[in-house]
Amino acid sequence: MQGEQMRSLAPSSDLTRSQDFFRSDSPVPLKDEDEGLLIVFRNRRCLVCCGCTTAFLLIQAMVILVLIFTLFRVRDPIININRIIITSLEGQAMNNNGSNIPIPKPGVNMSLIADVSIKNPNFASFRYNNTTTALYYHEIVVGEALGPPGRTRPGRTSRMNITVDIIPDKLMSSPNLTSDLNWGVLPMSSYSRIPGRVKMLSIINKHVIVKMSCSIVVNISSQTIQDQKCKRKINLKMLKW
């Protein structure tokens, strides 16, 4: 009787062990092949993640470089003299063309007002400090001027008037004045220096110095520019933070 009870209990014990084996909380031993496949899968996943991250960073770097060399590249400001007005010209004289022209008088203060435009082709504002201008007549300095500071918006053109005080005694001391007045023109030259800076997105901050030399032929009667040739030289320097 006892033997039959022991035999009947044996299958129940085997069933309990098999149920414990298939419980979810019971650790399932892995074979060496399974462990190797798991390691390979993890390494491959890490490589894919690293590759995606590296590709993303490279794309971002390329986009930044393209923006720096295209949109964010600092371009030279364009400066032009649109019109010149000579004030305090008194008296009349007959020129070779038979028309009366105003002539300067000794001791009378003269001034030249230049209408200057500054075009900013950059994608950031161009701020400039006081401008200095020297006026020459046949290589003789006949006047100087100091222009006000200002700002030109991105892609815009700003205009300002620069008044140059002319020293009439120096102008009339030139032996070429009589001949030029007879022809009704004044060949002059100017040299301007405009310091400023261009700042883009708080990343690119460059100091800009525009140096411009112009040869101008002014019609005295109409006070218009008959001919103008300008040469610009731009100096760019990265500012320190």
Automatic annotation (TrEMBL):
The keyword DNA-binding does not apply. InterPro entries: Lea14-like_2, LEA_2. Signal peptide: none annotated. Keywords: Membrane, Transmembrane, Transmembrane helix. It comes from the Eukaryota. Residues 1-21 are annotated as: Disordered. Residues 116-214 form the Late embryogenesis abundant protein LEA-2 subgroup domain. The keyword Membrane applies. Residues 10-21 have a biased composition (Polar residues). The chain crosses the membrane at residues 46-72. This is Late embryogenesis abundant protein LEA-2 subgroup domain-containing protein. It comes from Trapa incisa.
